[in-house]
C-alpha cells in the first residue's frame, strides 16, 4: 500500500450524510453508514489478515473502500462515487474518507474516477450507474443464467459422506425439487491442497459425479485453490510453492481450515500452476462443470513469489488459469474473494459472510457467519448483480431450528441471484419444503437496483 493522496473534498451535512464503503472481499464489512458513525473496526488478528486489503485495517474513524466509496451528502443526493479505473492495471485502489467538520475528505493510494450522480434512487442507484460505466469500460461479459444448486455444507459441514450426498440426490427426486446442480462441499479431500486424495468418507468421487449426472443433474464441487494446508502432502513435498513473507521468509499465514493452518499457493511458480491445472482438469474430466472456489483472498496476498508480482495481478492471473483449466462452459463461483479484482472473471460471487443457523454471530464481529452479517452485505451489494456477475447471497437454511428463517428467505427472495439450498432435504418441514421449492429458481440477469 502506497501513501494516501487527497483527491477530493465533498461538502456534507454531518447529521444526514451517508457513506457506502466496499469491503475488500466477500465476507468483509460492506454497507451504508452515517458519516458520524464509522463501521466497526476490525480487531482480531485473523480478521486483519483475511478481511483487510494489504492485511491492514483502516485508521480509526476512517471509512475505507476497496475500489469503491460513495458519498450521499444529505441522504438525498447528489451522490458522488469514487471508484477504480476500469482496467485495474496494477491493483485495486484503497479509497478513504474522513469527516472534517462539514466535509468528507477523500484520499486514495492510486488514481480513482469520480462520478457525480444526481439521478434518482440514492446511493444504490448511483452505485449501479457507476457499475454500468465500469462494466462497459472494462468490457465485462454478461452474467449467465445459472441453475439452482444444492450444497452439502450447511447440514453436514466437513463431516459430509458419499452417502449423505446420495441420500439427498434421491430426496430431490422424491420431493420433486428443481435442483439443477449438486455441489459437494468441503470434506471430500484428505487435507486442504490434497484435493485428489480422499478423506475416506468418499469411496469413489468420480463415480459419485457419474451418479449425479445420471440422475439428470449437473455436478459441482468446492475447492480452495489458493490454500495449502501445512500438514498436507503437497506442502511437505513442495514447500517452495507458497507465497512467503518478505521479512521473515516464512510462508504467509492464509487462514485456518478444518483446524489446519494454511499457506497461500503461488501460481506464478510454473510447477504449482501445473499442479492446480491438473487437479481442475481431472475434476472436469470426471464431469464436474460447476466450481465454487473459496478463500480466494489468499491469491491476492502480498509477498515473495516465484515471479515478482503484486497481489491483485497475481490473483487475476490465477483466476485466468482456473478458467482455462475448467473451460469456458463450466460455471465458476467466487467466495471469500477480492470483490472488484474478480469482476468479469467469475460467473457468480458470494457477496456476504457465511449464513448460519443463528441470527447474531457467535461473537460480536461484523464478518463472522450469521444471518445479520450476511443480510447486511447482501442488501448493500445488490447493485453488483447483473453488472459484474450473479450475486450469491449464500444458501437457503430453512429447516426447523434455524433462527428467523422466514427473514432469511425474504432476503434471498428480494436480493438473491444464484439460488441454492443448504439443508438436508429430509430435515425440512412443510413450510421449509414449500419455500425451498418456491425459491430454487434459475438466476435472472436482471439488475437489482
**General shape:** globular
Q: What is the structural class?
A: alpha/beta
Number of beta strands: 22
- C-alpha Rg, in Å? 21 Å
Number of helices: 11
Profile the largest sheet. 8 strands, parallel
Q: What is the average per-residue confidence, as pLDDT, rounded to a whole number?
A: 96
Strand order of the largest sheet: 21-20-19-18-14-11-10-22
Span of the ends, CA to CA? 32 Å
Beta-strand proportion? 15-25%
State the helicity in percent bands: 25-40%
- Taking pLDDT < 50 over at least 5 consecutive residues as the criterion, the unreliable ranges are none
Walk me through what this model shows:
The protein has 449 residues and is of the alpha/beta class. Helices cover 27% and strands 21% of the residues. The protein contains 11 helices and 22 strands. An 8-stranded parallel β-sheet has the order 21-20-19-18-14-11-10-22. Strand 7 and strand 8 form a beta hairpin. Helix 7 runs parallel beside helix 8. The longest helix has 17 residues. The model has no long low-confidence stretch (mean pLDDT 96).
The gist of it:
The chain has 449 residues and is an alpha/beta fold. It has helices at 45-51, 122-138, 153-156, 162-174, 205-214, 233-237, 270-286, 311-326, 371-380, 405-415, 430-439; strands at 5-11, 18-21, 31-34, 63-66, 68-72, 79-83, 94-100, 103-108, 113-117, 149-151, 181-184, 189-191, 194-198, 218-223, 227-229, 256-257, 260-264, 288-293, 331-334, 348-350, 390-392, 420-421.
Amino acid at each position: 500500500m502506497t501513501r494516501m493522496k487527497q483527491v477530493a473534498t465533498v461538502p456534507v451535512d454531518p447529521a444526514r450524510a451517508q457513506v457506502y464503503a466496499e469491503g475488500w472481499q466477500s465476507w468483509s464489512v460492506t454497507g451504508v453508514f452515517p458519516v458520524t458513525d464509522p463501521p466497526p473496526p476490525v480487531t482480531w488478528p485473523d480478521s486483519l489478515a483475511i478481511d483487510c486489503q494489504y492485511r491492514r485495517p483502516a485508521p480509526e474513524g476512517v471509512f475505507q473502500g476497496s475500489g469503491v466509496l460513495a458519498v450521499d451528502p444529505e441522504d438525498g443526493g447528489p451522490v458522488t462515487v469514487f471508484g477504480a479505473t476500469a482496467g485495474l492495471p496494477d491493483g485495486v485502489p484503497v479509497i478513504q474518507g474522513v469527516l472534517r467538520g462539514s466535509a468528507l475528505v477523500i484520499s486514495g493510494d492510486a488514481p480513482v474516477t469520480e462520478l457525480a450522480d444526481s439521478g434518482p434512487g440514492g446511493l444504490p442507484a448511483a452505485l449501479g450507474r457507476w457499475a454500468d460505466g465500469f462494466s462497459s469500460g472494462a468490457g465485462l461479459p454478461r452474467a449467465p443464467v445459472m441453475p439452482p444448486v444444492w450444497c452439502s455444507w450447511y447440514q453436514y459441514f466437513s463431516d459430509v459422506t458419499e452417502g449423505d450426498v446420495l441420500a439427498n440426490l434421491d430426496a430431490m427426486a422424491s420431493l420433486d425439487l428443481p435442483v439443477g446442480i449438486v455441489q459437494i462441499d468441503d470434506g471430500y479431500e484428505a487435507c486442504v491442497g490434497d484435493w485428489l486424495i480422499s478423506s475416506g468418507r468418499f469411496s469413489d468421487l468420480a463415480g459419485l459425479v457419474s451418479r449425479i449426472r445420471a440422475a439428470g443433474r449437473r455436478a459441482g464441487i468446492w475447492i480452495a485453490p489458493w490454500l495449502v494446508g501445512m500438514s498436507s502432502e503437497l506442502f511437505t513435498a513442495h514447500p517452495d510453492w507458497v507465497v512467503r513473507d518478505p521479512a521473515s521468509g516464512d510462508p504467509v499465514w492464509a487462514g485456518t481450515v478444518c483446524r489446519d493452518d494454511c499457506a497461500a499457493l503461488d501460481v506464478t511458480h510454473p510447477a504449482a500452476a501445473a499442479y492446480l491445472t491438473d487437479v481442475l482438469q481431472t475434476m472436469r474430466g470426471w464431469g464436474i462443470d460447476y466450481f465454487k472456489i473459496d478463500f480466494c483472498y489468499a491469491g491476492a496476498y502480498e509477498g515473495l513469489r516465484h515471479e515478482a508480482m503484486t497481489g491483485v495481478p497475481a490473483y487475476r492471473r490465477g483466476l485466468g488459469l482456473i478458467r482455462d483449466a475448467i473451460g469456458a462452459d463450466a460455471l465458476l463461483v467466487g467466495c471469500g474473494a477480492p470483490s472488484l479484482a474478480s469482476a468479469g472473471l467469475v460467473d457468480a460471487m458470494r457477496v456476504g459472510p457465511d449464513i448460519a443457523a443463528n441470527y447474531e454471530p457467535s461473537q460480536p464481529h461484523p464478518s463472522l457467519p450469521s444471518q445479520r452479517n450476511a443480510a447486511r452485505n447482501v442488501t448493500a451489494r445488490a447493485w453488483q448483480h447483473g453488472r459484474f456477475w450473479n450475486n450469491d447471497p449464500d444458501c437457503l437454511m430453512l429447516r426447523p431450528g434455524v433462527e428467523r428463517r422466514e427473514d432469511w428467505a425474504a432476503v434471498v427472495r428480494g436480493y438473491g441471484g444464484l439460488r441454492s439450498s443448504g439443508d438436508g432435504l429430509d430435515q425440512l418441514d412443510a413450510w421449509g419444503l414449500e419455500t425451498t421449492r418456491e425459491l430454487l429458481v434459475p438466476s435472472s440477469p436482471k439488475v437489482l437496483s
